[in-house]
Amino acid sequence: MTPNSIANSKQTMTSRWSSLLRYFSSTRGSSGPVAVRVDYAPGAGRGVFAVRDIAVGDLIHTADPVVAHPALASLQKACYYCLQGIKKQQKTGRLLPVTMGSANTARILSKLTPDDETGHASIFCSMSCEDSAAKVFYSIEKQADWSQLHAYCSTHGLRFPLVAKRLARMVASSATSEHVLDILTHVNLSQGIIPDEWKNERRLLLEALMSTTVAPQSFEFLTEDWYAGIIARLHLNAFRVERIDEQDAGDLLAAATASITGDSIVGTAIYILPSMYNHDCDPNVNILWPNNVTANLVARRDITAGEELRITYIDANMPCIARRSSLQQAYGFVCECDRCKEGD
Ligand SMILES: C[S@@+](CC[C@H](N)C(=O)[O-])C[C@H]1O[C@@H](n2cnc3c(N)ncnc32)[C@H](O)[C@@H]1O
Fold this sequence. Notes:
Blueprint: H1 3-25, E1 36-40, E2 46-50, E3 59-63, E4 67-70, E5 86-88, E6 95-97, E7 107-111, E8 121-124, H2 127-141, H3 147-156, H4 160-172, H5 196-210, H6 224-237, E9 239-242, H7 252-261, E10 265-270, E11 278-279, E12 285-288, E13 295-299, E14 308-311, H8 320-331, H9 338-341
Parallel strand pairs: 11-14
Antiparallel strand pairs: 1-2, 2-14, 3-13, 4-10, 5-6, 7-8, 9-10, 12-13
Bound molecules: S-adenosylmethionine.
Domain SET: 32-314
Pfam family, one: SET
Organism: Sphagnum jensenii
């Protein structure tokens, strides 16, 4: 690297950082002015901080994902675009969005492919979701046979390749940039070597995309390095979107715990601002999905201006040793929160 290119890359980082901060400073809570800023958090990289006092139960801000994908097991139970729950009315067999309670009938559109091993159909909760999906990914998706990639994910219990699949289609249709996740932190590959599993997933993805009528040049970005960069970021930043049970709805801790431990996973999503939140085993913020894939960041207790806002990445009800080992394994850090220090 020449001194000039170093200066340029620093400038790019600085301007990226300030545009990110500008974005964050325009993020408003439900009640009142800007509630958060992103700054350096000692010992944990970047973090999110309160810029004003926040009361328990306040919605601090909402966040829409960069990309999301329903779990394979939820394909007939959630909107293929916004992940809103959909249930079948017993009497009529009509499909209704779960949270809206209206007669807005969801429609089964078409099978992903006629010979899709999963046999699932994609369902949208509204015309607007169907239109948005068509614009950003669905028109390309409908042309391809995803059975091999889906079967691979089912067999190996994988969800990240599905998110990468949707992101690749969004990039190919210019709905987003191939660099959209660059700003997020990522796992470091051992000796920089891309694991064979990731190479295999990327090959299945590329083969399916290449079988569409889209010009092959549209997928030039989909190199092994690009794919590895996406998966490496999903590992540290992706959220499991889970439905809040009605009985948990009034209890924020129960709802947050259910969203981490529950087996009713609706899908996987990746966000920018929520990915900047660090972990604490006694968090002051919950991340919840009351309706669909739009995340709600809600205060778990009264928070003072300047305090760092933290969520929990794991089931905080586990014993200390289990929590620490799970954080170390999945996120690569040793938790030094007050609870862990006290061995609680
Ligand atoms: C989702 S990111 C959170 C934002 C991150 N700090 C950043 O700069 O982008 C998760 C990573 O943040 C760091 N982190 C989060 N919580 C932490 C904590 N309690 N202690 C130390 N590091 C933490 C770890 O490196 C972890 O892999």
